[in-house]
Amino acid sequence: MNHHFETIILNATGASTLTQTEMIQSLWSGYGEILRYKLTDSRLQSVVVKHVRLPDKKKHPRGWNTDLSHARKVKSYRVEMAWYQQWNQFCDESCLTADCLALETQDDEVLMVLEDLDQSGYPARKSMVSNDEINQCLSWLANFHATFLGKQPTNLWPLGTYWHLETRPDELNALNDSVLKKAAHLIDQKLQDSPFQTFVHGDAKLANFCFSADGKKVAAVDFQYVGGGCGMKDVGYFLGSCLDENESQQLIPQFLEFYFQSLKKSLISKQTLVDFEALEANWRDLFPLAWTDFHRFLKGWSPGHWKINDYSERVARSVLENLKNEI
Question: Fewest CB within a 10 Å sphere: which of 220, 271, 284, 302?
Fold first, then answer.
C-alpha cells in the first residue's frame, strides 16, 4: 500500500503505526484485496481495509472479462463509496453494518477504511447455519428493508443486485432456456412495478453475514450492489445461498412467515405508514418471480452451478406457466 493511503488510515484512527496482519480475501477478478491492519496507540485494535486496484488485465474465474463486466465492477465500487458516504449511517443495531472511518481515491485505486466487525463482537463466518441463525439474517434483511422503504436510491444502483437484467445482457444472450429468456424482461418489469420499493443489499449471501460467537446477532458487509428494488430479491437470494433443494421445498414457507413478521414489527417500531397487508400480499406474490429472476441469471452465467436444482426449476416453470398469456 502506498504512503498516501497509509497516512489516511493513521489519520482516521489516530494510530501511530499500522501493521498488516491478514489478507482476508482477494476481490473478485483480481481487483484488489480486503486486509486487516493492527493499530498501535489507537482506541481501535484493528481496522479492515478494502483496497481496490483496477487491474491492467481483466481476469474472471468464469471467463466473463468483457468491457461491460469491467465497467460494472468499477461502478460497483463507486456505489459502495456512496453507500458509506450517504446511507450507511441510517442502519441501526437491527441491521448492523461496519462504520466507515475513511474513504479515499487516487488514480485507479480506492481505499475504504472500515470498522473491524471481528473486534466489535461479530467474529464468526458460517458456511452452514441453523434455522435460528437463518432467522437472524432474515431479521437483518427485514429491518434493512423497513429502514429504506420508499426511499430513492440516490447515487446507488437505480435497481440493485449484481444479477440485474439490465446489467447482464451477455448472460441473457448465453441462456439456452428459450422460454425463460423470452420471459426475462417481463419478470424484471413485474418486480420493478411493485408499489413497495425499498433498498436491496444486492448480494445478501450467507458469506456476507458476520455472526456473534453465539450466533444470536449478525452484521452484514459488502455494499457494492445496493440499490432500489423489491425486498424479495434479497430474501430469495439469501435463502438460496444456504438451503439445498429439499430444504427449500420444506422450509421456505416458515422462513417467509418469520421474515414478514419481522418486517411488520420493524415498520411499526419505525412508525412507517404503509398498508402492510397490501405490501405482504404483493411481495409474497413476487417471491417466486424474484427466485426465478436469479435462476435466469444463474443458468446463463454458469449452467452447471450447484444452485440450479429441481426446486428452482419447478418454481421457474410455475412462474412461466402463470405468465404464459403475457409472454
Answer: 271
